[in-house]
Amino acid sequence: MNNIKYMIELDSSIDKSEPFVMGIDEAGRGPVMGPMVYGCCYAPVSKSSTLKSMKFNDSKKLTEQQRDQLFFKMGESNKILAYETDVISAEILSEKMLYKKPISLNVISHESAIGLIRSVLKKGVNVQELYLDTVGPPDKYQMMLKKLFPEIGKIIVSKKADSLFPIVSAASIAAKVVRDFEISSKNFDDLNIYDEDEQLSTEFGSGYPSDPLTKKWLVKNRDKVFGYPNFIRFSWKTTETAMRGTCYGVDWVLENDKLKQHFQNDKNDKKRFMFFKENNIENCINDF
Amino acid sequence: MENGANTSLNHNIVIKIKKDDPSIEDTNLQRLPFNIGYNGFAKVSNYFKVTEKSGPIPTDDKKYLYSTFRGIQIIGEKMKVPNGFDGYIFRDENEQDDSCNRQWETISKFNELTYWNRETIPSDFDKQIQAFKSLNILSMVNKEITEEDIKNEIKSSKKNNQGNSNETSTTTTTTTTTKTEKNQEIILKIEKKDEEKNNFKDDMDDTYEDNIKQKKYKK
């Protein structure tokens, strides 16, 4: 499974056709390891005051304990709100950002947010107000979403949305708690390294490139051939720098060019028959 | 080739194959789309995680192998060594030796290998896969032709091919450099017919005739 989803559905007593407000936020965009998690939270507009009284705040301004408590409360309040998250693994991030035609982190983020909106709309929830924290220029992002979702009356993309709108705060808490859970439950057992000395430690700190613990981990747990387990984002500059000079050089030459170089020892320039050329069959004796 | 092409032609290679040696074990061979500046053991089973799933084309039921190397996606497919062939891996025993004498020693064998592409699904258009598949045809190309074969085929072809002019049959050759003799031409046509019966069709039909002709010219 690439995408793991954590979600809570609305209580069946709630009328999905009444106007809803929805907020979207992300956690783990910057770190060099672990997944990026997108979270959304939605609630009937009529329940706005109840939502306010739940005292959601920007997840960064809360302690881990406060976040966990609020998340727990969210799970028990499906008569007021529901949430959904999209976990984008480090492996997927690396893959997409390292394609020959790379997909930028911004585009991956937009796609995830759009996926969440689609998923909620598909459940028949009548979303009329949508608030998001910006990724890239806010007005462009807002235009794109308005075009994609004309059925949503009001779409607002703004900076610091997570501290301005309670529904976005709730979404940010869901995203952050899910990401923390993914990180803390991470061990490297799946690598099946039985040699005690070679076990990878899980003391990787916050995962942010600026964290000394994270830096230390990256230096200590390098494999010269593979670099790191795919829990690490290979598309980050930090990872590239940590591997450079220590890990063996890898050359992804276009296959055809490589073969050409490989066989160009044949200096006789003897004409080859089409069949051999087209099927890449060469006389390789000269090569040894 | 720092010594120029001439010396390389003087290489003396001795290849030792012990076919039924029990110490030569089957190996798990992967053909990867990159070079690495290292030759030796690696923690493959620890780090190289492979999952099997269908490709992006909904009509394609085939399962492919998916993995990543240093964050880059690679997609693979298992390929069997064609019937009648055995795969061996050799090691050059005198690698350090500057002389031109080489001795290759078998270190392991294989019946299948996994072919990997960067980001794209392996297909018959990949050069390496083509080369691998054409082994089947090469076995026919390299078949020795006895004088008797030639005589027999001239006989039968005279019956079948009367009225067919020489010019028309040469039009398909594109790389011909040698003069064609009438009877050879006819042999080729017969051969082609025979082999089509053996189901060697695929995409090779266009180049097929070239290939067989080349073989003949060498003789």
UniProtKB/TrEMBL annotation, chain A:
Occurrences of domain RNase H type-2 (ranges): 19-248
Gene3D superfamilies given in the database record: Ribonuclease H-like superfamily/Ribonuclease H, Ribonuclease hii. Domain 2
Keyword Transcription set for record: no
Pfam families according to UniProt: RNase_HII
Entry cofactors: Mn(2+); Mg(2+)
GO BP annotations listed: DNA replication, removal of RNA primer; mismatch repair
Co-factor remark: Manganese or magnesium. Binds 1 divalent metal ion per monomer in the absence of substrate. May bind a second metal ion after substrate binding.
Key word Ribosomal protein present: no
Family annotation (InterPro entries): RNase_H2_suA, RNase_HII/HIII, RNase_HII/HIII_dom, RNase_HII_hlx-loop-hlx_cap_dom, RNaseH-like_sf, RNaseH_sf
EC number(s) per entry: 3.1.26.4
GO MF annotation, one: RNA-DNA hybrid ribonuclease activity
Family as reported in the entry's similarity comment: Belongs to the RNase HII family. Eukaryotic subfamily.
Xref: PANTHER family: RIBONUCLEASE H2 SUBUNIT A
Protein name per UniProt: Ribonuclease
Automatic annotation (TrEMBL), chain B:
Gene Ontology BP annotations: RNA catabolic process
Cited InterPro entries: RNase_H2_suC
Gene Ontology CC: one annotated term: ribonuclease H2 complex
Organism: Dictyostelium firmibasis
Protein name, entry field: Uncharacterized protein
Superkingdom classification of source: Eukaryota
Bias kind Basic and acidic residues: ranges: 179-202
Biased composition (Low complexity): 159-178
Region (Disordered): 154-219
Residues of the signal peptide: none
Gene3D superfamilies, per database record: 2.40.128.680
